[in-house]
Amino acid sequence: MSNSHIFLKSGFIRTPSQNGVGRYVCQLQRVVLKFCKNNGSSRGMREFVESELINFAKNNPGVVVYLKPRRHRAPVISAEFLNGDKQWVSCHNYSKQDISKWLNLLRTQSGNTTGFRLRKLQHTDHPSIQGPWTPYTFKDPAENLAEYPNTELSKPKIQLKTATDELLEIFNSVQISDKKGVE
Fold first, then answer.
1. Distances from the Cα of 6 to the Cαs of 11, 87, 118, 153, 161, in angstroms?
2. What residues does each domain of the chain span?
3. Where's the Ribosomal protein/NADH dehydrogenase domain (predicted)?
4. CA 79, 85, 91, 92 torsion: positive or negative?
């Protein structure tokens, strides 16, 4: 294990309490679209602002959208969430569809950043000496030496009746009992 986790923030996952139980509360609070009016790398951002920004603002009334023109700078989307976290996306040479996808992603996120070392609520001083369970823990050791594809190992271990077989048996037993009742 490396020591890179030392420099990450540490804590528990903070989620909005019962978000979506009564009604959904969008966690995106504010979006700032920063772009240059003349620079070619901001063309997609300018096209998005001209054609799709009004629809985005109408569809998301809880999100405040700011436009910030800047000279000779690369376009950036800066997002602020209700929990105080901030994220930004560099939109250098992005099309208006890419910017729309990024805004949709930011709108649906909870705002928790990935640079976060998660801590668990449980701890043990005596971990298991057997090691963690894996799907291969109780496998047959013969499978280690088998050559694949192997028809013998491909067969199901337990032959269960299908629902169709069960229904046919019930139908046949009813017919047999009806024949005995008639005779």
1. 12, 22, 12, 47, 56
2. 25-112
3. 37-110
4. positive
